[in-house]
Fold:
Amino acid sequence: MGRAPCCDKANVKRGPWSPEEDATLKIYIEKHGTGGNWIALPQKAGLKRCGKSCRLRWLNYLRPDIKHGAFTEEEDTIICTLYNRLGSRWSIIASQMPGRTDNDVKNYWNTKLKKKLMLRHANLSVTNHILHSPPPTSAPPILPTVKTEVFGSTDFDFPTVPLHPDYGITTEQPQKLYSDVMPYAHANGQVVSPSEEVSAASSSITVETSSSHSFLNWSTAGVGSNDLFLSALGFGGAGDFLGGYEYQENLYFPNPSIMWAASETDAQGLHQSPTYS
DNA sequence: AACACTTGCAACCGCTCCAAT
DNA sequence: AATTGGAGCGGTTGCAAGTGT
Structure:
């Protein structure tokens, strides 16, 4: 069929927004709203931009409730846990973090958090190697390798890491593993924490993520069902990754339909149902 | 000081979804 | 039921700023 472009590219400005454009858009939206029609908005506002660009600029930068600045440890944990659970559903992940946009979260994950994970993974691998490996008496065996593909996120391609069987991570294909064990990823024991020494912390924290209807409860009690992703990386889980906090399911999503759509349409969703009060 | 390389992030692209017709 | 057009999403790109040599 083919689709018409969202705007006449020859007649719209592109590239970085000037302060004047920002001001024009902001003032217009604050005065008139978007009217639910981004396509017509730029002309009404007197901007030589396409509606799509205006929408993005507003949502990702100009909105008054946007939070700029560094991500906190709590936010790291939320991202980590929800990515583990949902894959790259940035809009849903961002919806749990007031003031953060999907673009923010996505960029943060791609540029920083993923590297942080890999770094910790590398460190843990070294630690495990030192702690658990017997003194080498002969040439080391050729170890199996795992390419991590999680929840259909086929692009998530951490470096192929040699895994020692004693470390507890199997070489079974993660995708199969995930579908097999849903909704209890740990039930058949295919995935276990490779580093027992990091699971002893005990504390809890409740993170308010919205003033009205959303909070996440974090504690170290029990083994969460969300740890598959991080376990596959060599972490005990999100809490393992970030200071010992373990995510405990207690999500209150502003728009439940989003979550059901996410969980039911392609079997990449939540391990268990959110509850509402 | 100058250049090369890396990093972070704003912005764009192309696609799917969905409501309206 | 088929088509259309807008909204929204995830992936990718481009560039400015920062850092290293």
In short: The longest helix of chain A spans residues 102-132.
